[in-house]
UniProtKB/TrEMBL annotation:
GO terms for molecular function: DNA binding. SUPFAM superfamilies: Homeodomain-like (SSF46689). The keyword Membrane does not apply. The keyword Iron does not apply. This is AcrR family transcriptional regulator. InterPro entries: Homeodomain-like_sf, HTH_TetR.
Amino acid sequence: MTMIKLAKCCNITRRGLYHHFSSKEEAFHAMVVQNNENTRRDSLREGGRLLSTGANVLDIITAILDVRYGDTRRKLALSPYALEVNDYAFRLCRPAMIEAAAIFQADFAALLERAVVSGLLMLLPSISIKTLVQLLCDGARGTNQSFFAPAPEEIAARYREMSRAILYGCAEPAKP
């Protein structure tokens, strides 16, 4: 994509685009950073909403992972250049993606701490919230990068299956 095409997509002039970004790479990086921030915020908002309604922890985790990771995957699935975009993101934006992952995982852990306090989740003594969150996020990222990636409409179900396998291998369902 050229800066001219990108400017048209943004509904601004090429000169206006160059006012904000000096290159396509810089514009792409900004887009990845913004998308990570949006999906982090939206996923935690949805998880918090479900937690406040008393939803079960598997539904909460599935919703969080689906918004955080699934929304981007579904958007990419629409593009014939999905592999190239994914490759480019990992090569150009890796430090920003690592930073976004660390921030998200800390926020996700805080939300799951609330689930523990409210009695929705009881971890085994040998498993920390931080470990559980790392396993869940690694699983979600692995689902996205797998050779047998789910179809866009099956992403949420795959996150749920993966989360159930991790969660009930290291936690017990809360007693009603």
